């Protein structure tokens, strides 16, 4: 498979998992806010955690299941994944903040375009990059050391450098 095609397939899997994570986030938020009567900030914090858990599980079992992982322990990898998702969320909030407080665009349409349009695209780009390079990065083999290099030759001869 060509590199662009493989990247496209990886992104498609990432996006499919993202749809389920989005539904878990929104669904749990609406349930916590509505029938449970929870404060909006607490409800959003819990729904964010639910969405991150679904996204992590989906990515670990889906598009990134066959990759060797740079971060090897499950909880540490989940923590890095949560931080990557928080960074993506911060990008979305940043787009909304710039629209409202810098550009002075305060209509609902402007909020939707900046937060759920531009912010979602940029935040997804941050999440995709972070997920594939920081969380589920492919392990790279060390570069071979040639015999002609002084450091390698000294070590091969038993010298201490």
From TrEMBL:
<keyword id="KW-0812">Transmembrane</keyword>
<keyword id="KW-0472">Membrane</keyword>
<feature type="transmembrane region" description="Helical">
    <location>
        <begin position="45"/>
        <end position="66"/>
    </location>
</feature>
<feature type="domain" description="GtrA/DPMS transmembrane">
    <location>
        <begin position="14"/>
        <end position="136"/>
    </location>
</feature>
<dbReference type="InterPro" id="IPR051401">
    <property type="entry name" value="GtrA_CellWall_Glycosyl"/>
</dbReference>
<feature type="transmembrane region" description="Helical">
    <location>
        <begin position="12"/>
        <end position="33"/>
    </location>
</feature>
<dbReference type="Pfam" id="PF04138">
    <property type="entry name" value="GtrA_DPMS_TM"/>
</dbReference>
<comment type="similarity">
    <text>Belongs to the GtrA family.</text>
</comment>
<feature type="transmembrane region" description="Helical">
    <location>
        <begin position="78"/>
        <end position="103"/>
    </location>
</feature>
<protein>
    <submittedName>
        <fullName>GtrA family protein</fullName>
    </submittedName>
</protein>
<feature type="transmembrane region" description="Helical">
    <location>
        <begin position="109"/>
        <end position="129"/>
    </location>
</feature>
<keyword id="KW-1133">Transmembrane helix</keyword>
<dbReference type="InterPro" id="IPR007267">
    <property type="entry name" value="GtrA_DPMS_TM"/>
</dbReference>
């Amino acid at each position: 498979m060509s590199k662009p095609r493989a990247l496209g397939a990886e992104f498609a899997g990432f996006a499919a998992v993202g749809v389920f994570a989005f539904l878990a986030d929104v669904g749990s938020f609406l349930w916590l806010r509505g029938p449970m009567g929870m404060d909006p900030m607490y409800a959003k914090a819990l729904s964010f955690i639910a969405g991150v858990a679904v996204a992590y599980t989906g990515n670990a079992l889906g598009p990134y299941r066959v990759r060797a992982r740079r971060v090897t322990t499950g909880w540490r990898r989940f923590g890095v994944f949560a931080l990557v998702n928080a960074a993506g969320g911060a990008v979305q909030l940043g787009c909304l903040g710039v629209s409202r407080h810098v550009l002075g665009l305060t209509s609902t349409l402007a909020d939707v375009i900046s937060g759920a349009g531009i912010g979602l695209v940029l935040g997804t780009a941050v999440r995709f990059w972070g997920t594939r390079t920081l969380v589920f990065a492919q392990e790279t083999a060390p570069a071979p050391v040639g015999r002609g290099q002084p450091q390698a030759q000294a070590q091969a001869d038993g010298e201490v450098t």
